[in-house]
Write a structure and sequence with these properties.
heterodimer; A: 126 residues; mainly alpha; Four Helix Bundle (Hemerythrin (Met), subunit A); 5 helices; 0% strand; B: 172 residues; alpha+beta; CRO Repressor; 4-stranded antiparallel sheet; 7 helices
Chain lengths: 126, 172
Amino acid sequence: MKRGIIALLIVIAVAAFTLYQYFYITSSADIYIEMLSTAEEQIEQNAITDAQETVEKLDHRFTLGERTMEIFLQHSDVSEIALNIAMLRRYSQTGDISEFLAVSAVAKRQLINLSNAQTPCIENIL
Amino acid sequence: MLTIIIRTVIVYILVIVAVRLMGKRQVSDMQTSELVITLIISEIASLPLENPSRPLMMSAVPVMLLIALELCVSIIMLKSRRFRGIVCGHPIVVIKDGRMIKSELRRLRVSEEDVYSLLRQQQVFDTESIRYAIIEPNGSISVLMQEDRDDTVESTELIDEIESVEKGGENT
């Protein structure tokens, strides 16, 4: 009976951890993607200062959440996104629109992949 | 390197907890499910030690879940004989009254030489003197000799049990 209770507690802990991880990663990725889209729109409308501000906010937010993300995800995946965001920040400062849009598209794709990988769909399970 | 050292200590503690929760069986006494769980745990536990980029939780969570599943399976096996049979298999009579049952050996994919070897390990050298020899689900052999035949209650119960095993083996 004691072992049954231990098993139940482990299952509850694992389920809670997994759910927290799922919602944390997907919601964070959604927020970052939205911020990237906003920055892209601002850059396309030549609002460079606004885009700079948005990317700085994104960078700050990502840096805060990076450590938590590294608990759940491959550290190299998280580092790659951080690197791309740092590049975006630099391109927004130099006003290099084409490079900004290219790197933004890469970062967006990485975040979408990260978010999709959390979903327990057939493709991911198999 | 420091990260790997700390991880190693954590993984060591985790695996010790896992083994303690699974019980005190020796490797040779393990049931199928226990053996499978042990192999998987050893493989998963080593991954974060090999690759520091991999989060420790990616291994810790599956290990904990495997322990929980193993505990659940062992509890269900205690309560259901049928479930136990599905997971671990049934004991199978391979020698009856000194005669080797070749159909059962073929079904088990065990040769006569393997059976003789197992018997020799039990200090049995003459198959004629065997009343029953049973291959247990963990691969060991149990032997009841002809001279063990008596009419005590324990012996009668044992024979009944063996005969039910024999019937079970024929049905499966």
